[in-house]
Amino acid sequence: MLGAIIGDIVGSRWEFNPTNDYNFELFSDKNNYTDDTICTIAVADAILNGSNDFGQYIHSWCRRYPHPMGGYGGRFAQWVMSDHPRPYGSYGNGAAMRVSPVAWALNSCKEMLHVAKMTAGCTHNHPEGIKGAQAVAFTIHNARILRAQYGKNLGEELLRDLLEYTLWKFPGYNFDVQTDAVQNRFDETCQGTVPVALWIVQNSTGFEDAVRRAVCLGADADTLGAIVGSIAEAIWGIPEWLKTKALTYLTDEMKCVVKEFHNRTKNNKPQSALIYGVEYSNPDLEDWQPEDVPSLTFTEQQYKTFVRGYIPDWECRFAPFQYKDWLYITRSGFWLKKFRFEKKDDGLYHLAEHFTTRKTMGNDLLKTVLIEGYYDPPLFCRQ
Predict the structure, then answer these.
(1) CATH class of the 2-270 domain in this structure
(2) What DSSP string describes 91-139?
(3) What pLDDT is attached to residue 376?
(4) Residue range(s) occupied by CATH 1.10.4080.10 in the chain
(5) What is the mean pLDDT of residues 285-308?
């Protein structure tokens, strides 16, 4: 969640004094945390305390900090000052900027989306407010999955696939944004901010680049920076110097929540993997059974073609896929085979280990998929 906080602090200086200078000064004595950081930390604090009453924690934290840089928005300020706060049907982008802790704390996508809705619903219970929070959390969740599979360098193709999966899950968003339509335009709604944030991430090459692009758009700099920063953290990680600098702006109790949240969640592993826009269970959680290793070899070109994977058509629903250091065969959301090859002195890749799930014990899928017609280079799309 520190990515959201950094984006907020970096953008704070420019919220009401917009800049289009990409090379603006990231940190100065004119920067500070805003309500975006306070609400993000409140959500994290609720999670640390095992509470789903996000409204109580957000209300309490905002009461403790009644005058953040930039203040609170009108209706949200009334909610903060109320002794009996109730949701007020907002679809503002505040729902999307504070949700990131949920995507780091919860590894189940279904549970994560449910809790993301709860973080929004205490104030922003309009369908667009809830959608904005869930879309950002969903993107972060899936970025964590892809980073677990591919490391820090996802590349343009996987980054596009990640964001297109969000658009598929949340129809109505479109990140085919024209700069002239959004530059220097202050939009506080989820539907006017979240697609722009996705568009910025799509065109970025790293964490700092993404935050700079968000802020220099000249829009709602701190909140757009927070949303973009929260997603960018999951994709690229955060340079250590940025983490260290950002923490100097926080109060001691804020730092305690940030550090405790990091310690609690740093070893969390997503319970799924993304393959061609389909969410699979994490293969590390499967009950893999060893099988005899059949004699099977690939030339180097065949092997390289295979590990790229391909999207199967309706007649060819078995798909080879690489996850971490293993090769797999998948079908319709299930893991079927797990295996690896070793390159020998003859220059060929020889099948070395071979595992199956219980549901496919005894089925020679390697032969079916790789030899009897499914292994067909023209089917491969990741060239």
Answers:
(1) mainly alpha
(2) -BTHHHHS-HHHHHH---HHHHHHHHHHHHHTT--SHHHHHHHHHHHHH
(3) 45
(4) 2-270
(5) 81
